[in-house]
Design a protein that fits this description.
α4 (121-131) links the parallel β8 and β9 (143-146). It is built from 10 helices and 14 strands. The chain is an alpha/beta fold. It folds into 2 domains: 4-79 and 196-252, D-Maltodextrin-Binding Protein, domain 2; 89-195, 3-Layer(aba) Sandwich (D-Maltodextrin-Binding Protein, domain 2), CATH 3.40.190.
């Protein structure tokens, strides 16, 4: 049965994603992992894909890793050079329309928040942690709109169907580069605290030997000169070997927010 390979999280410019995939296949081949025969997938059901025992390599989000994917193994985490990133950690921009310039998060009480999905660390849970100390009787925002993606959240803000959204710093940088019209009229009024970035994962059934080869391939991708253009296109500047325990702060923040009485945004 074919092993599965995907790069679903920062697919803003698909040509760059395809170039990254080609590099990964070559490096996996060189590490003896038969990258050419790894079945590439753009999964509609990401959770089912990430839970597949045949998963060789993919990228998920920190909240699903901690809350929904207890069996997968963490391979490591890319370091990104976008504003709002530091080491293997990243943040989200608090994005609003330009008319709200000068306002702070506290000014958005009883406004409408836009989120990509309820299982997103960068679009939902990081913002929940920030407004938890500001909530009253379990509420801060008056309404929530789920957009389905960070890019669609930006469109929802522009269409005045929501007032504020937390947008992953890497996505914000990539969309600003490739789709400037999508961010026209929108600004960042701040960032959320740093949290562990999007982890690369593999199946629980992946052997320790294969796990080490995956880490070697990603480390080479992040450091070897021949891949510099691919790194620059994807804003990758390094790779850190991380473990599930490095993502414990995400679980701690969820529990802390719930303890204030804010069970949902």
């Amino acid at each position: 049965m074919s092993k599965l390979l995907s790069i679903p999280m920062y697919d803003v410019n698909h040509a760059d994603t395809e170039a990254l995939l080609r590099a990964l296949r070559q490096l996996l081949n060189e590490e003896g992992l038969d990258g050419d025969n790894a079945l590439y997938s753009l999964p509609e059901d990401r959770l089912a894909h990430w839970r597949n025992p045949q998963l060789l390599l993919s990228q998920t989000c920190g909240y699903p890793l901690r809350a929904l994917l207890p069996d997968v193994q963490v391979v490591g985490t890319f370091n990104y050079q976008a504003a709002g990133c530091e080491g293997f950690r990243y943040s989200s921009h608090l994005v609003v329309r330009e008319a709200y310039a000068g306002k702070t998060l506290a000014d958005f009480r009883n406004q409408t928040v836009v989120c990509n999905s309820e299982d997103s660390q960068s679009g939902y849970h990081c913002l929940r942690s920030l407004v938890a100390p500001l909530q009253h009787e379990g509420r801060f925002f008056s309404d929530i709109v789920f957009s389905g993606s960070h890019r669609q959240s930006l469109a929802t803000l522009s269409e005045k169907k929501g007032d504020i959204a937390a947008i992953d710093a890497v996505t914000w940088a990539l969309v600003s580069r490739h789709e400037p019209e999508r961010v026209a009229g929108l600004i960042s009024i701040g960032t959320t605290p740093l949290t562990p970035g999007l982890p690369m994962i593999t199946s629980a059934q992946t052997s320790p030997q294969v796990l080490q080869k995956l880490r070697q391939a990603l480390q080479r991708l992040a450091t070897e000169p021949q891949w510099q253009a691919i790194r620059d296109a994807q804003l990758i500047k390094g790779f850190s070997v991380t473990t599930r325990e490095d993502y414990q702060p995400i679980s701690d923040a969820v529990e802390k927010a719930a303890a204030t009485g804010l069970l949902t945004l």
